[in-house]
Amino acid sequence: MPTASNPARTTHAFFDIDTQIDFLFPAGALYARGAEQIIPTIATLNHLAARRGCPLISTTCAHPEVAEEFKVWPPHCIVGTLGQTKPASTLLDSRITIPYTAIALPGIAAQQIILEKNELDLFTNPNLIPLLDALNITDCTVYGVLTEYCVQHAAMGLLSTGRRVRLVTDAIHHLSAIAAEEMLTAFKARGGELLTTAAIAMD
Ligand SMILES: [Zn+2]
Q: How does pLDDT run across 93-132, given as a tens digit for each residue?
């Protein structure tokens, strides 16, 4: 397993974006219709990352009861609620949580890194860039929800850091099909690649 002190063993990381109960399940606070259908695929990809020894970065909204986001969105993913948690099938046994306040990055031996955030953009977590650098991540496989919001921030933001980014088209879900299509077009125009879970499994 790669660690922060031994980063050269892998350069490929999987990014599982906001696959939390509030977004995925019909009873969730910010449910995207049909999103529960991608949960088995998310679970497959997360466990594939583990089998290949690739770091898995699972971002999560981890909001306090009063959050800036709630001026725009219904309250969701409040710490301590069931809706903030991830479906059990998307969790790996070996995991560590990194908060959205700046910390001295610990040595990362865990397979799943839960990266918390209090805004849509995962790059608002000041620990993300140091983490990417510490693990020497150059290739990124991205999936999760929602395509035109948090997935977009992940995919475009990682491209902006100069890394290779691949988006898994059968493991993302949107609110607006039109906005999601526009996002994918813009992503490809910037050099991003689209592929399917089946293609990753055959890599
Ligand atoms: Zn949120």
A: 999 999 999 999 888 888 999 999 999 999 999 999 999 9
Whether 17 is in a domain gets the answer: yes
Give me the mean pLDDT over the 142-149 stretch.
Answer: 97
* Ligand 1 centroid, distance to 65 Cα (angstroms): 11
**Distance from residue 69's CA to the centre of ligand 1 (Å):** 6
Spatial separation of the C-alpha atoms in residues 135 and 4, rounded to whole Å: 5
Domain count, the chain: 1
Residue 20 included in any domain: yes
Domain that holds residue 149: 7-202
Q: How far is the CA of 61 from the centre of ligand 1 (A)?
A: 5
| Distance (Å) from CA 6 to ligand 1 centroid | 33
**Residue 2 located in a structural domain:** no
Q: Which residues surround ligand 1, an ion (CB under 5 A)?
A: 61, 69
Look up the CATH number of the domain holding residue 174: 3.40.50.850
Q: How far is the CA of 59 from the centre of ligand 1 (A)?
A: 11
Tell me whether residue 190 is in a domain.
yes
C-alpha distances in Å from residue 176, one per residue of 33, 58, 105, 181, 182: 10, 23, 37, 9, 10
Pairing of strands 95-98, 164-173: unpaired
